[in-house]
Specification:
single chain; alpha/beta; TIM Barrel; 8-stranded parallel β-sheet; 8 strands; binds D-xylitol-5-phosphate; binds zinc ion
Length: about 220
């Protein structure tokens, strides 16, 4: 079972000072930076492009860029994000494109891969892909915006995916994203999650280093 870790989300950082926000994440002791990419089609919002992350690398960030593509056609952009410095690229199961080929291509590009499910998508939708991924991301809010409330009805989905992981001896990470704070992270950990995205709760935390350390102890 992978060791628990916090992936603070840049979406909740200062968009005029992204390098400072990334530096703050590193200073808090986090190894991962969750990078939310939105296209205004798959989700009703816009965020960053590959150049943003290339610039963060040039500014000196050595964080693990956990790149969450909320795109209708992610297969068109994986190469650009790999070149920009992504370490892991996750793609949603909901849009129609060749998921399996895109996951394989992400690895060919030298990145880890991940598959993501929206709250309305059953675990069964990604079950055939479990042997081919480095990470499964279960959305605990409808994607598009930070600051939403955690959906407890996603806990059984985590339990199901964790059960498949154990039964099959797989070791992909099981990540949760949306409304995660220390309280809800504990509930997700009990349901099998090991990787915790936190936007609002991280950037508002009085003790960010304490938050990172507490998640590592879950
Ligand atoms: C939502 C994004 C999340 C977002 C989470 O579409 O995928 O990563 O940053 O924000 P919080 O932690 O504020 O719910
Ligand atoms: Zn995300």
């Amino acid at each position: 079972m992978p060791t628990p870790l916090l992936a603070p989300s840049l979406l909740a950082g200062d968009h005029a000072r992204l390098a400072d926000s990334a530096a703050l994440v590193a200073a808090a002791g986090a190894a991962w930076l969750h990078c939310d990419i939105m296209d205004g089609h798959f989700v009703p919002n816009l965020t960053f492009g590959p150049e943003t992350f290339a610039a963060l690398r040039r500014a000196g960030s050595t964080l693990f860029f956990d790149t969450h593509l909320m795109l209708a056609e992610p297969q068109k952009y994986i190469e650009a994000f790999a070149k920009a410095g992504s370490n892991l690229i996750s793609i949603h199961i909901e849009p129609v494109y060749d998921h399996r080929a895109t996951l394989a291509r992400i690895r060919q590009l030298g990145c880890q891969n991940g598959i993501v499910l929206n709250p309305g998508t059953p675990a069964a939708a990604i079950e055939p892909l479990l042997g081919e991924v480095d990470l499964v991301l279960v959305m605990t809010v409808q994607p598009g915006f930070g600051g939403q409330s955690f959906r407890r009805d996603m806990l059984p989905k985590l339990q199901q995916i964790d059960a498949w992981r154990r039964e099959r001896g797989l070791n992909f990470r099981l990540e949760v994203d949306g409304g995660v704070d220390l309280v809800t992270a504990k509930e997700c950990r009990a349901a099998g999650a090991d990787t915790f995205v936190a936007g609002t709760s991280f950037f508002k935390a009085a003790d960010q280093a304490g938050f990172v350390a507490a998640v590592a102890q879950l």
